[in-house]
Design a protein that fits this description.
The protein is 26% helix and 11% strand. The protein has a five-stranded antiparallel beta sheet. Strands 6-8-9 form a three-stranded antiparallel beta sheet. It has a two-stranded antiparallel ribbon with strand order 7-10. The chain folds into two domains: 12-103 and 129-211, Phosphorylase Kinase, domain 1, CATH 3.30.200; 215-453, Transferase(Phosphotransferase) domain 1 (Transferase(Phosphotransferase), domain 1, Orthogonal Bundle). The longest helix is centred in the N-terminal third of the chain and has 30 residues, at 2-31. The chain is globular, with a radius of gyration of 23 Å. A hairpin with a 5-residue loop joins strand 2 and strand 3 (160-167). The chain is built from eleven helices and ten strands. Helix 5 runs antiparallel to helix 7 and helix 7 (312-327) packs antiparallel against helix 10. The chain is α+β, with helices and mostly antiparallel strands and 469 residues long.
């Protein structure tokens, strides 16, 4: 019996090592064929979805997904410290549990014709995409325990870029979050999602090359305390919902929405960034970790131990960010632990019961005796500035629902009356078109310093040193 167990263990270890080698080799091959246009290819199953309210579709129930489309995702213990090294490395993941999207790779040893196009016949040593020497590092933007982010410049086309350099360790392999982020972003082309230009894989590092965006929503709000201009809040929220609707329709959850992960360009474009905790292909799932999303933006169902969630998870974060932009302070700034976070939520929205939240008593961490019994309040009682903007309180209340199935979907939220005074053309834009291409759509001046005076650091995920949440 012992011999049989030892044999099975050895076989599992062998399979995991083989997977690690396969993924590392895959990145090596990808490096030979990368250029900006090559990122249009991605193996993603596009599925129609239904919204969290069960109305205008954002997600299909799991039992309607064909058996061959169901993908099991490994349950993980995700880190929320932007500097903390991921605990899930390639060598520890079975291929059957890998939620990443497989890259399309060319035959080993063959160079992509697209890459060769950048090299002039008279200049065989011209810079190429996919090569480490194709980018010049200008300055460091931030550093963490396993990644460093630099401002850089492309030697191919002269554009500014952000270089997220992930250090690889031979014993542990490529960080799984880096593989996941690269896999997902490779196929996402939208004006409100940070663009992944290139992937460079060497023996020592994995570098993700992003478009350069100079600040994030956290820094923007820090520069303009007391709440943002109401019209700017509306434009930022519209862009956030637009980006989320795009990924939700592609069956992807972000799972780590917070102001630091929303980049803001100098023209006011908002871009979703840091997909290290994102998940694809298996929404909804019964196997997700309940340790996702930074505490202040984590929904009560996840705080109470639920692992059965869908796009509703992201929509709670949208509600928190919406309130924070208007009010100028975080909606639920828990200072101690999960218990404190839940108390702050229940103080405003009311302590749940089976009538207001069917099934709440079955959640692992819900113990009625542990919570003070509060009644629900009007949101304007907690955040008075919601009453200063037409329809803002109603939209916030439909996003900040304790019962996850009652939360608005991103697509439904875009149709809310709160946005009724925006130009109709905004709903007709193509995915890659900025909202600022529509006449008369522009940011209003904020009080205080201008956007261009902001600090240089931004997140790009796991690379900043100024996170405070």
């Amino acid at each position: 019996m012992c011999d049989m167990i030892d044999s099975q263990s050895a076989e599992k270890i062998s399979r995991m090592k083989k997977l690690r080698r396969t993924l590392s080799e895959s990145f090596g091959r990808i490096a030979l064929k990368k250029e900006e246009s090559s990122f249009d290819e991605i193996c993603v199953t596009k599925m129609s979805t239904r919204n969290c309210q069960g109305m205008d579709s954002v997600i299909k129930p799991l039992d309607t997904i064909p058996e061959d489309k169901k993908v099991r995702v490994q349950r993980t213990q995700s880190s929320f410290d932007p500097f903390e090294k991921p605990t899930n490395q390639v060598k520890r993941v079975h291929s059957e549990n890998n939620a990443c999207i497989n890259f399309k790779t060319s035959s080993a040893g063959k160079e992509s014709p697209k890459v060769r196009r950048h090299s002039s016949p008279s200049s065989p040593t011209s810079p190429k995409f996919g090569k480490a020497d194709s980018y010049e590092k200008l300055e460091k933007l931030g550093e963490g325990s396993y990644a460093t982010v630099y401002k850089g410049k492309s030697k191919v086309n002269g554009k500014l870029v952000a270089l997220k350099v992930i250090r690889l360790q031979e014993e542990e392999g490529t960080p799984f979050t880096a593989i996941r982020e690269a896999s997902l972003l490779k196929g996402l082309k939208h004006a409100n999602i940070v663009l992944l230009h290139d992937i460079i894989h060497t023996k020592e590092t994995l570098t993700l090359v992003f478009e350069y965006v100079h600040t994030d929503l956290c820094q923007y709000m820090d520069k303009h305390p007391g709440g943002l201009h109401p019209e700017n809040v509306k434009l930022f929220l519209f862009q956030l919902l637009r980006g989320l609707s795009y990924i939700h329709q592609r069956y992807i959850l972000h799972r780590d929405l917070k102001p630091q992960n929303l980049l803001i360009s100098d023209t006011g474009e908002l871009k979703l960034a840091d997909f290290g905790l994102a998940r694809a292909k298996s929404v909804p799932s019964h196997t997700y970790s309940n340790e996702v999303v930074t505490l202040w933006y984590r929904p009560p169902d996840v705080l109470l131990g639920s692992t059965e969630y869908s796009t509703c998870l992201d929509m709670w974060g949208v509600g928190c960010i919406f309130v924070e932009m208007i009010q100028g302070v975080a909606a639920f700034p828990g200072m101690k632990d999960i218990q404190d976070q839940l108390e702050r939520i229940f103080l405003v929205l009311g302590t749940p019961n089976e009538d207001t939240w069917p099934g709440v008593h079955s959640l692992p961490h819900f113990k009625p005796e542990r919570f003070t019994q509060y009644g629900p309040k009007n949101l304007r009682q907690a955040w008075n500035k919601l009453s200063h903007v037409n329809h803002a309180e109603d939209l916030a209340s439909k996003l900040l629902q304790c019962f996850p199935k009652n939360r608005l979907s991103a697509q439904a939220a875009l149709s809310h009356e709160y946005f009724s005074d925006l130009p109709p053309r905004l709903w007709e834009l193509t995915d890659m078109s900025s909202i600022f291409t529509v006449p008369n759509v522009r940011l209003q001046p904020e009080t205080g310093e201008s956007m261009r005076a902001f600090g240089k650091n931004n997140s790009y995920g796991k690379g900043v040193s100024n996170s405070k949440h």
